[in-house]
Amino acid sequence: LEASYESEKSLASVSKDGVAVEILMNAGLALDMPFLEQTGAAGVGLFRTELQFLIGSQLPSVATQETLYREALDLADGKPVVFRTADIGGDKTAPYMDHGNEINPAMGWRGVRMAVDRPGMIRPQMRALLSAAAERTLWVMFPFVTLPGEIDDIRDLLDREIDRARRRDKALPADIKIGAMIETPASAWRADLIAQKVDFLSVGGNDLAQFYFAADRDSERVQRRYDPMNPGFLSFLKNTVEKVSRTGTPLSYCGEQTADPITAAALVGVGVRQFSLPAAFVGPFRRLVRSLEAKAVSDWLEAHLHAPEVTLRPAFAQFLKDSG
Ligand code: PEP
Ligand code: MG
């Protein structure tokens, strides 16, 4: 990480006109955790727990999972760590899971669908999370939600694990915060209903853009059709952010498109106030936020969200340059 950013890590991430933006970081290994201190990120907004599931030749044991989660929480030293339950399937296949013969695995048996259908996998993970976060706050987030009812199903499983721990006199977390990822157009469209069932939401922009554009996030041939600076996509996000903000449920954005400062600025412009980014981009993003006039950015976008262009990137980049 660049030293000049490290010297700015305690500066407030507030725009020139006083809009506060909370900056968290993405992680997936204990090795990532020291970046919290180095970058000054406010916490881990996305801890991808499936990494541990994908590197082994079998499901990690409860003890192995618990050790990692406890280590992550210890290293976070009181900052929140949002554990995203194993998002297996789609682009993340585990050798020991039978995914069947799916022609479209990205739209197949993955994320929370697998968790609800195969509780034998999620329940040990919940057990490990509950135990690792004993006497602390557990933040747990479920990937690839499409229907509000999936939250009820997953809560039911979590409640059973809580009961199980109680019956065994195990120490439980002091508080449990449940979140849903908004990564499909179906959940974005119903984000206000989902928001009422959870404590927080996080937009997984990598997947959300993939399904919005019906363009594979990893296919080079359709890369130019997968552009978060598309005015339709930005207006879709703005609509989602506004719907959710009326419910009072906090919403973050954890898609990696924020690695691009122009896109990150546009996301502030459509109303996102909390971000989780790869560690290397925390410092650059803080500096960017501090240079922005958030109101001017959002006014500019508002005036261009119905533009016929495929992408607002060049025009918006010019606007940012002109406005210093
Ligand atoms: C996303 O889809 O934007 C996301 C953060 O999750 P992942 O990239 O792990 O699918
Ligand atoms: Mg995703």
Structure, explained:
The protein is an alpha/beta fold and 324 residues long. The chain is 44% helix and 13% strand. The chain has 15 helices and 8 strands. The protein has helices at residues 3-6, 34-39, 50-55, 62-76, 111-117, 119-132, 149-167, 185-189, 191-195, 205-212, 231-245, 261-269, 282-291, 294-304, 313-322; strands at residues 22-27, 44-48, 81-84, 137-145, 175-182, 200-203, 251-253, 274-277. The protein starts with a helix and ends with a helix. The relative contact order is 0.14. The mean pLDDT is 96. The protein binds phosphoenolpyruvate and magnesium ion. Magnesium ion is lined by residues 143, 183, 204, 206-207. It comes from Hyphococcus luteus.
Using the alpha-carbon principal axes, give the shape: globular
- Helical amount: 40-55%
In whole angstroms, the N-to-C terminal distance is 25 Å
Q: Whole-number radius of gyration?
A: 20 Å
Task: Compute the average pLDDT.
Answer: 96
Query: Pairing-aware structural class of the strands and helices?
Result: alpha/beta
Give me the count of strands: 8
| Unreliable segments of 5+ consecutive residues | none
GO biological process, one term: phosphoenolpyruvate-dependent sugar phosphotransferase system
Keywords: Cytoplasm, Kinase, Magnesium, Metal-binding, Phosphotransferase system, Pyruvate, Sugar transport, Transferase, Transport
Protein name: phosphoenolpyruvate--protein phosphotransferase
Subcellular location: Cytoplasm
